[in-house]
Amino acid sequence: MIDITFAQLQAWLVAFLWPFTRFSAFFMAAPLLGHSAVPRRVKIGLAALLSILVGPTLALPDAPVWSWAGLGIMVEQTLVGAAMGLALRVMFTAVQAAGEMIGLQMGLAFATFVTPDGSNTMVLSRLFYMITLLMFLAVNGHLVVIDTLAGSFHLLPIGYTGLERSGFELLVRYGGTIFSSGLLLALPLVAALLIINLSLGILNRSAPQLTVFSVGFPTSLTLGLFLLMVLMTDFGRFLQGLFGRGLVFLQQLVETLAPL
């Protein structure tokens, strides 16, 4: 007969619960598994599997789960996981912002559809997001992220240290990448289409009998599709730089959150 004491149950629960909290918070905020189309059982199962693998290798504090100290540790792990997930989401949001800018100039603002999460998204923005997601999986970026997440337990041990506020400030500042990188990607098409719109405005003033609405939309859409084909030839290099900066920032965020 196998005898299991309360102390052993407490140790097993602590070794599983606190890593599980960080993993589950990350998967809820990350762009891939955090999508509402992914079943919750998949998110919970993957977080539980990683917790079982990582938990026995960690040095855990001697604090009861059902205590104020245990509650504080759980909140701390939730903040760390959510911060890392949001940092990863910024990369994909930058590409979506570029798709919104380009689609608005091309006249695709009308071509929106309802996504599974219930929000309206431009078709071009959705296309950019799917290409970016597939490229991220193709270069094994998800494996690098999981490795960084597992290594964060050594830089940010559970319960032994607090969190530096400068790390959250760094995350907020990194949010500017959405506008800077998104505008950098969309700038060639936006500038060209803006010149076309200005030319059509001048043409309308010089020839009022020419209806701009009947000529402008087909012209903007046709030229926009052609420029989009040219842009896609350099899209991979842009994503390579975006992924590199994002993964480096993810590691930097973990190091910044760790107290000195």
List keywords for this structure.
2 strands, elongated, mainly alpha, 9 helices, 260 residues, two-stranded antiparallel ribbon
Structure in a nutshell:
It is built from nine helices and two strands; from the N terminus they run αααββαααααα.
Please give the alpha-carbon distance between the first and last residues: 48 Å
Structural class: mainly alpha
Spatial ordering of strands, largest sheet: 1-2
The overall pLDDT, averaged over residues, is 80
Q: Count the helices. How many?
A: 9
Number of domains: 1
Q: What percent of residues are in strands? A: under 5%
Q: State the helicity in percent bands.
A: over 70%
Number of distinct beta strands: 2
Radius of gyration: 24 Å
Shape: elongated
Helix-strand topology string: HHHEEHHHHHH
Characterize the largest beta sheet: strand count, sense, and whether it forms a barrel: 2 strands, antiparallel
Uncertain parts: none
List the topology elements.
Blueprint: H1 6-29, H2 40-54, H3 68-106, E1 112-114, E2 120-122, H4 123-138, H5 141-155, H6 165-174, H7 177-206, H8 212-232, H9 235-257
Antiparallel strand pairs: 1-2
Helix pairs in contact: 1-2, 1-3, 3-4, 3-7, 3-9, 5-9, 6-9, 7-8
